[in-house]
Amino acid sequence: MQTFKAIGCILAVSCALSFAHAASAVELAGIKLDDSVRLVDQNLRLNGAGIRHKVVFKVYVIGLYLTDKKTTVSDVLAAAGARRVTLVMLRDVGSEEFGKAFAVGIEQNTDAAERVTLSAPMARFNAMFTSIAELKQGDVLNLDWVPGSGMVVILNGKKILEPMNDAAFYNAVLRIWLGSKPVDDKLKRQLLSEP
């Protein structure tokens, strides 16, 4: 009987440890990113994560969530189902500066013809940044792709951009970090879980 109780305790502790590990897969700069999240009835797994540095400053922690593990840019961009990019701010950044960084990242990773077709969603995306004064340390920004609805942007649990049903624009946003001229090559490798 004692043996069964001991085995039961070991299994309970083992399950608790496994759950704790699953709930917080990665910790970067004191920020914990969950191993999985639920978005529109889909379970997304953390594909990769890293820290965005600018000069000597840590700007944000970023995590890429997908339904299945992907290790190539083409597979991420073609992924079916929901997707999420989570940014957790490590410092205060003015929304104008942050919006400009997004615009530059998109411009550097799209050609002229694509930029023309993306001009309308880009204008809506840029206007979103005028609705907030700044992103503060600790703020959480989610850039979600919701199948059937489109791209939704949520800041600290509050929707700040109504759905934009334009997969090409969402992929253009993803290419800020995953494109041929990403904001940081090391960060690109981390998001794709490359060694």
From TrEMBL:
Gene3D superfamilies in alphabetical order: 3.50.70.10
Signal peptide residue numbers: 1-25
Keywords: Isomerase, Signal
Limits of the Chalcone isomerase domain: 25-192
Top-level division of the source organism's lineage: Bacteria
Keyword field contains Cell membrane: no
GO MF annotation: an example: isomerase activity
InterPro entries registered for this protein in UniProt: Chalcone_isomerase, Chalcone_isomerase_3-sand, Chalcone_isomerase_sf
SUPFAM superfamilies xref list: Chalcone isomerase
Name assigned to this protein: Chalcone isomerase family protein
